[in-house]
Amino acid sequence: MAAPHVAGVIALMIGENDEITPDSIEQLIEQGVLTEDLGAVGRDDNYGYGLINAYKAVSAAKGLDASTPYLLVSPNKANFGASLNQLEVEVFNGGGSNLSIVGEPTSDQSWLSVAASDDVDSQGLGTYFIQVDRSGLTDGSYSGTITFNSTVNTQTIDISMKVLSASASADAGVLYVLLLNTKTGLAEESPQAEVSVVDGVYEYELEGVAPGTYQIYAGTDNDFDDLVCDDGEACGAYPTLNQPVELSISGDQSGITFDVGYHADLSNSTLSVQNNNKAAQKKLSHKKSAASETLLLDQDRHKHGKKNLAPREN
């Protein structure tokens, strides 16, 4: 039933502004201008770009002229978790004609900075690097905003991150590290690892990974049901659980670090990982313990038997 609702909303938009093009609508959807975000921040495989909002869509159409320039940023939200230090954002003209960035992009926090990449053009459009510096900050959650001003309009990027000191006492128990094949949606066909904590840190190695596109998850299986990340079990993903990213693997990789924690607040944002035809629900959580992990991938393809997410007792 989603398609007729979206089609009806787009018809309303065109009724307000017959200059709107498919490209304009696509750009507005990608920016979250027409929707209410659901699930993980930004686009995700469960909820796409979110729930269409007719009022927001028509309001956007009233102010949008396809021939008029309009500054857009993607993504407009970023979560650095407790380990990520840098992310890229794209700054571009979502309309017609010309616009340019006015001055330098600004940050409202001392720990948050933004820098232009080499591909930023003379109008100030292109790729920017957003960086966070946790040095000197106490443990906790932090938020900030990056602002881009243009000759036409202003766009902001909402930033969140955590500071979580490593602790030798941090121990979530045995973790199962999984690769989710984003094409098949399955984890049991990819190499997995069972790891234990050493001085508050988990290190893992996955061998024989076939070239492809994956997401990385880690969690406990306290109830031995072959599913990680049930309620009350530790869970994490790279770079963060609410914003897992796809990694294109064609050779060895290392230094991929993320955090694992326990569920405190349950969210309606979930992601399923299939194993033995069951779904492991990954819910958003706050961090209670930290795990730093390393991934080594083998470029050569090897055959592996099916592995369970947790050992079974005979």
Q: Would you mind describing this structure in some detail?
A:
- With 314 residues, this protein is mainly β.
- It has three domains: 1-66, no CATH class; 70-165, Immunoglobulin-like, CATH 2.60.40.3450; 167-314, no CATH class.
- The protein has helices spanning 2-16, 22-30, 54-62, and strands spanning 35-36, 51-52, 71-74, 77-79, 86-93, 106-107, 112-116, 126-132, 140-149, 154-163, 175-181, 193-195, 212-219, 235-237, 239-240, 243-244, 247-249, 272-275, 278-281.
- Strands 11, 12, 13, 14 and 17 form a five-stranded antiparallel β-sheet that branches.
- The protein is globular and about 60 Å long.
- The relative contact order is 0.13.
- Mean pLDDT is 76; it is low at 264-314.
What is the secondary structure topology, with strand pairs?
Elements: H1 2-16, H2 22-30, E1 35-36, E2 51-52, H3 54-62, E3 71-74, E4 77-79, E5 86-93, E6 106-107, E7 112-116, E8 126-132, E9 140-149, E10 154-163, E11 175-181, E12 193-195, E13 212-219, E14 235-237, E15 239-240, E16 243-244, E17 247-249, E18 272-275, E19 278-281
Parallel strand pairs: 4-10
Antiparallel strand pairs: 1-2, 3-5, 5-8, 6-9, 7-8, 9-10, 11-12, 11-13, 13-14, 13-17, 15-16, 18-19
Share in β-strands: 25-35%
Succession of helices and strands: HHEEHEEEEEEEEEEEEEEEEE
Round the Cα radius of gyration to an integer and report it. 22 Å
Note the overall shape.
globular
By helix and strand content, what is the structural category?
mainly beta
* Head-to-tail CA distance between termini: 47 Å
Largest beta-sheet details = 5 strands, antiparallel
Percentage of helical residues? 10-25%
Low-confidence stretches: 264-314
Question: How many helical stretches?
Answer: 3
- The overall number of domains is 3
Average pLDDT: 76
Q: Using DSSP, what is the number of strands?
A: 19
